[in-house]
Amino acid sequence: MEETLEILQDNLSQALIDTAYMVVVSAIIGVVLGTLVALLLYLTENRLFTPNHALNVIVGFIVNAIRSLPFLILMVVLIPVVQLILGDPYTPTGGAISLSIAAVPFFARIAESAFSEVDPGLLEAAISTGATTRQIIVDAVFPQALPSFIRGVVLTIISLIGYSAMVGTIGAGGIGDMAIQYGYNRYETGVLVVIVIILIVIVQIIQWVGDWFARKVTH
Questions:
Q1: Which of 30, 26, 3, 64 is nearest to 186 (CA)?
Q2: pTM for the whole structure
Q3: Which of 70, 89, 104, 114 has the fewest C-beta atoms lying within 10 Å of its C-beta?
Q4: Which candidate, 95, 212, 219, places its Cα nearest to that of 146?
Q5: DSSP readout, 10-59?
Q6: Rounded to an integer, what distance in angstroms lies between the CA atom of residue 104 and that of residue 150?
Q7: Dist. CA 185–CA 176, nearest whole Å
Q8: 191 φ/ψ sector (left φ>0, alpha ψ -120 to 50, else beta)
């Protein structure tokens, strides 16, 4: 018990910082770039805007191809790429890059689905008033899609927390790395129990906050 407490005292705070860093960076990149990809898919598929079947199919294929790979396989495939960029892929920044690449197509499909739920009648009414595509997206599509969009952000963040633990298993840092080094390799079951409890609490809080925001913006 004393050894478990000592391990937690010496390593837990840094592990949480590393995990938070990886999740926050990858979530921001995933949401921003994923939203842009989702808009491209949405606009090139919707007959009311600028349909472009060929571009939609190409972008959709790339998104689906990345999403079809299990994260552990994607992570291994990306190691040479991350190594080329950073020199050392086994760092929290290396983990953040891998998580970002996984997050973009994941969130893109969620955001595209949220945009597609917007009532076409509302869009047609906006077009009939002479509104530009930008005005329609900003003033009609986003406000109507916002509740689903927020829930998608929450789902993405929660998924990234789980993925960050996997990244830690290859030495990128964070709570996954701590769980493997101490909880598994050194048979410190108490460390694993504490990490699991912390993850459950964090996920519950994020889910609650996300649901609260989604309810607040629901029309």
A1: 3
A2: 0.89
A3: 70
A4: 219
A5: HHHHHHHHHHHHHHHHHHHHHHHHHHHHHHHHHHHH-TTS---HHHHHHH
A6: 15
A7: 12
A8: alpha
Q: Supply the angle between the helices 71-86 and 142-168 in degrees, to the nearest 10.
A: 80
Angle at Cα 17 formed by Cα 175 and Cα 68, nearest 5°?
55
C-beta of residue 203 within 8 angstroms of C-beta of residue 164: no
- Chain segment 32-87, per-residue pLDDT in tens: 999 999 999 999 988 878 788 899 999 999 999 988 888 777 777 887 888 888 77
Tokens of 133: 């595509």
Look up residue 156 and give its two tokens: 């993405």
Q: 3-state DSSP call for residue 66?
A: helix
SS3 letters for 87-155? CCCCCHHHHHHHHHHHHHHHHHHHHHHHHHCCCHHHHHHHHHCCCCHHHHHHHHHHHHHHHHHHHHHHH
Determine how many CB atoms are found less than 10 A away from the CB of residue 212. Answer: 10
Find where tokens 């101490």 sit: 182
